[in-house]
Each structure stands twice: as structure tokens, then as C-alpha cells.
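Researcher: Quick sanity check before group meeting.
Model: Go ahead. Protein one:
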Amino acid sequence: MQRRVTPEPSHHYHFVTGKLAEGLLRETVSILAKKHCFDFSIGVMPITVAALMTPKWLARHLNPPPQTTHIIVPGYLTSGTPELDQSVKIPVIYGPKDCRELANVFGEEVDKVDLCDYDIEIIAEINHVPRMSLADFHRRATQLQESGADIIDIGCDPTIRCAAIGDYVKLLVDAGLRVSIDTFDAWEANEAARHGACLVLSVNSKNCHEAVDWGVEVVVIPDHPNDKKSFEKNIDFLSKAKVPCRLDPILEPIGIGLTNSLLRYAETRRDYPEFETMMGIGNLTELTEVDSAGVNFLLLGVCQELGIRSVLTTEVINWARSSVRECDRIRRLVYHSVKNHVPPKNLTGDVVMLRDASLPTYTEEAIDALANSIKDNNYRILAENGFIHLLAANVQLSGTDPMEIFADLLTKPPSDNVNREHAFYLGFEMAKAMIALQLGKRYNQDQSLDWGLLTAPEMSHRLKKNHPRKPQN
């Protein structure tokens, strides 16, 4: 399925649309044609909404001019494309669902890159594991692994020793998961290692002598974040004892010493390039009252540039509840960015969650033209230029408050067109439109708002209820 084309002066593009989108499509294509120097024509199909077209139906109604070199159809035609390709002897380009995004077809945006590669390991901590049942613990660990965690970290209770720690470790190891343990209790660490844990967090002067006997990799930390001498002493002791180590000079929160701790990571990478390094990024995400994605992005960018190849995070506080999923996506972005010496922009919108990257808009003239072209009583909702617009035959309402718009609608004939189903649907959609305006997001009627990697697909309701199942002439 072809979605991009390299425009040439000899090309003639035939754009296919429905009656409602003709004005906006013509306006959009005119700008692109002038910019990219190609000829075009607009094929307005005998159907109101382009989303209702099917490949078989379209093949019967297409009538491109003889000079056409490419046909560009809406992105709604995602099934039955081989049938359309075979029946039309001209190359078919499958564009976006929204004609305002047609620039992408002509290469004005960067192609999505392969984001499979990464080299930062995610260690996801489950806090206070001894307070959980084995079943709840296993369920939570599986969720974190599915979100992208490479190692499940068992957070112990510092106030009481967990006699059953081996059972928690063995449960995950038997399930094929890699496990670490977060404890300063030497007995717990030894039991965890004995049952298959591959990493112990953390080791300083208080427990480094016992670490010699565990037979697993450990995370070395200073006795105090600013105590560089103890850090060096702990590293030296464990190194001479041939205990495999990764180093963590400790990330401190804003207000306590964030900048100095970042400098310590840079110094540690400079002074100990032969050792792996870990950053406990949860120290910042959990203690910074802001959505976690941006914080995770900056910290993983620092890690990628410094060569810190493992991070420890957790999802205790609500604003960090998707941190593991965020880190899994972000580590791929920063890997690509650093490897190719490019900013992490125009790669994917997965972690642009609160606001959208761009907002193509209708002009007032286009909205008026759309309103004047509607001949049926089905409602169209737009969220444009700070206003919610409600359109139908002989109805053109706009405002910022859905309640007021609906009250105005009830004064318009025919009043029997607003039944309970319509009222619920309009309230649902206008609430989404209001959220989109408040946050700076695109609103497309009958589609989910785009929350990046948190987006939940939404079933179409308007097209199924208010229109016939098959396109009609």
C-alpha cells in the first residue's frame, strides 16, 4: 500500500473525496500544487462523507481525467486495497484520513524511522513486595515485563526481614523473568541470589564484605551521595574481590542536589569507563510533581549520551504510572538520536501525550462552506480556533460551552431530531472537543483523542448509527 510519492512537474494527481470535504481539499491541494509544481484535479464522489466509501464502490465511480498519473484516495480505504489497485490501471496513493495532513504524502514530514534498537536496560521496581501476595506480585511483575521492563526489581521492606524472599524470587525466575533485589539486608540478598536473582541493589561499605559471597552482580553506591571517597573505596574493594559491578553515584531530586548528582554521573563515566553504570531515575520522577514522560525523556537522553546503560524506575505515584512504557519507547528514540546525531523530533508522537505536535486547522471560510454544503440532519462537530462548531442542515452553532451549544440546538427545528441517543452522542463528542481545545489537541469526530502511547482505540458511533451501512448515490 503506497502512502508517499515524490512529486514531479510531469505528474497529474487526481484527488478523490466526498461532497463535504471538497472545499477544504481544494484549498489544501492548491497550496501543495503550487509548492511542489504538479497538476491536479479533484474527483468529488457522489457521496457526502468520504469515510463511507469502499474500494469496490469507488472503483465503479472513479472517472479520472486522461492525463492522470496518480490517484490519491482518503486513508479510510484501508481494506480491500488490492481490489482497488487491480481495477484501476493508474497508481493509487493511500493518503491520510484528514486532508489537512496531505503534505505528508509529498514528503514534507520525516518518515517514521526504525526504532527497534536500544541499549538502555529498564529495571522496574515493585515496592514493598513482602506485603503482597505471591499471586498479586506475579501479576504486577508480568504487567511490568509486558510494558518493557528487562529486570523486575523486588523492593523489600527495610523495617522487617522477609523470610519468604526466596519464594518471590523463584516465582519469577521459574516464569523466565530476570530478577533483582533492592535491600541492604545481607541475608535477604544472599537468599535472593541463591534462588536466581541476577542483581543486588545496593552495596556500600555496610554490606560490601558480604557481597563477595553472593555470586551475583551488584550495584555499588557511595555511603552518602556526596561522599566520593567512600564510593571509590567501595568500588576498589569489590573490584579487587572480582565482584561484577555496575555503578550508581545516586540521582538526587530537585532541591536536594539534582545538578550536582548529574555532574557525578558524568565524572563516574569519565573515571570508570570500564564499569557499567545505573541511574535511579525514579528518584526524580516520583519526587517531581509533573507528568513523568518529559522527565524520563530528559534523563534517558542524559544516560544515552553518557553511556549509562541501565535505569531503575518505579510506578508508585499516579503521575508516573506509565513510566516503564514511557522509558521503553524513549530509550529507542534517544538511541536513534545519539547514534545519528539528530534531535529526537519528528520520529514518533508516542510520548507527546498531553498536547499534539501540530494543529492543522480549518479557516472560517472553509467552515462556512462546509456548513452551507450540508443537506442532511446528521451532526458534524469541529473544534477549531478556540470554538466548538456544531453543523447540520440549517444549523451552524459555535461556542466554548457544550451546554450552551446544546441549549441553542434545542431551539432549532426540527426538534424531533434530538432524541436521547443524539443527546448522549452530542454530549460525549462535544466534551471531547472541549478537552481538545483546552489542551491544544486535534479533534476528529468519532475518533479517539490522541494520547500517544496511552491512546485507547474508540469504536465509531456516528457513522454506524446516522448513515446507511453502504454508500448511496
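Researcher: Fine. The other one?
Model: Protein two, sequence then structure:
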Amino acid sequence: MQIDLIQEARRQAEICNACRYCEGYCSVFPSLHTERVFSDAAITQLANLCHNCRGCYYACQYTAPHEFDLNLPKILAEVRRDSWEHYAWPRPVARRFHTHGGAIALALVVGLALLFVAIKAIGSAGGEGFYAVLSHNAMVAIFAPAFLFPLASIAISLRQYWCDVGGTTIRFSDLKAAFIRSAKMQDLAAGHEEGCNFEDEDRFTHARRHAHHAIMYGFLLCFAATSVATIMHYFFDLPAPYPLLSLPKLLGIFGGFLMTLGCVGMVRLKLKSDRGLGDSGAWSGDIGFIVLLGFVGFSGLALYALGSTTLMPPLLAVHLGSVLTFFLLTPFSKMAHGFYRLAALVRDAQRKRNAR
């Protein structure tokens, strides 16, 4: 990892540790205040606990023009991104993604082109609905490796992260505490009942928290739709297409709406926010990934709405291309934050348990 980023984060953390004004703001400060000497691993753990709500910056008396020039949200965002790049496997792909947001568009175009080729070359197996365009076996052959690769990549990355931050054997209570905190996204409130001021220094709202909730739960609903459809296909001999009121369709429609609206809201908030309080070097990658995720949800909804028309074949290719791109880029994009954030919360739960 970049030594200069770690050193600057260490300098700021030591000042925050002496001040302690922001002690109740989020998970970062209680963890920070238990340290006396900040190792590289401790800085990495703090960075992945941070959700960049920026409440500490706006409350801080030591920001510029003060000589201390504190900007903890920015430096932790930079360390966080650097840690993702350091632990990512394969590592060069992650660095190129964050510095070249256009890679998302390129990957999407390539994914679409490959799918069009696959559709023409493999053809249909005489199925109904989507399977009339691309057979079930062809879809499995394309998407199974694309789904398993990011899982393997993230598992390798998280294992290294867990070892470096001193993680120990995980107990059920650690997982429970981390999942509850993650599900509620408490740290996005910045210690205030009225929310955080991510988008405007003088305006506290829960808008960012709600956008995160919409994206996360929308994605989980879409994943549940695919999982239910898989179970129905293989265990109950009920292949697609499914009627509108079937469980896969209902889960997918609600999930698609939530994911699309959440991504639109997140882009709006990021455009209004101060880029100087985040990792400006990863701006294009962040925006590009959010747009891609929102497009996955939107194209899925369009496919539901127009699946019985002549527009279905090109819409299917566009949707599957975006999904394929999303899968392949997951280990190297902002999506990785969710996994590291959860691991950091589990490690923090262990710290609290050991402190009792």
C-alpha cells in the first residue's frame, strides 16, 4: 500500500485521538480511541469502517485553514481505495478500474458484443421466452463462470485483509452484530438522529442512508429472484418464463425498482457533494459503477415490460451484457466496499467483545 497515504492518515488519526470531539459519530472513532499507536493494519481497519458521511469534517475545528489541516474523510477514503487495490486479485485490474472509469463502458461494450456473438453462434434450443433467444444451457455456460470468478476473487482478497487486520476466529455474535449494523446503516447518520450532511454542510438528511438502503435491498431482492427461479427450475421442474404474480417476477420487479431509484438518488447526492472530502481519484470509477448498477436494474425492468414484443432479443442482450459486466467488475469496483465494510464491522465486533 502507499506509504505516504498511511503516514498522513496516521498523523490525522493521532490528532483526532487527542481531541476526541467526534467520539460518538460512527464506528470509526470508538475504534480509533482504543489505539495509542496506529499500525498500518489499524489505519486500514479504520479506513474500511468509515462510510464517508463527512460529519466529523464539518464538526472539526482543525480543518483548513488551521495548520493541522485535517480532512479525515478524504484521507480515509484514499486509504480505503488503496487497500481495495492492494488486496484485489488480480491487483492490476483494480488499479486500472479506479483510475480509468471509462473501463466500465469499454467492458460493457465488449460484454454486449460477446453476448451478441454467443446468441448468433449458440442459438436457441427451442425454448420459450428468453430461452427462445439464448438457451438455458448457454446462459449457464456464460454466467456461471462470471458469477464464480468474483466470489473467488473477493474471498482471496478478504482472507488477506482479515489476516492483516488481526482478525481471529469469528463467532456468531460477531456476525450478528456486524449484520445488524450493516442492515441499519447506522453510521450513515454521523451520530445525529436527523442524518448526515454529506450533500450540504448546513443540511442534515437521511437521503444518503435511504439511497444505500434502496440499492442494497434492491440488489438482494434481485438476487433472491434469481435464486428462487434457479430452485424452481432445478428442484421443482418449473422452468421460465414465469407469470407476473410468480415469486421470481415479484422479487425481481420490486428489486429492480429499488435498485434503479437508489442509484439515481446516489448519483444525485454525489454530484451535489464536495469532491474535496472524498477520493477524487476514484470519482469516475465510483460514478461509472453506480450508473452501471442502476442500468442493470432499469434494463431488467424494461425487459419485464417489453418481454413479449419484438424488442425482447436486443433488450435481453443489453441486459445480460450489463449483468455480465457487473459480475466481472465487482471485485474491482465500489461493490467491493460492501464486503470490506462487513469484514471491518465483524473485526470491530471482535474488538468490542474482547474489551469487555
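Researcher: One line on it for the slide.
Model: The chain is about 70% helix and 0% strand.
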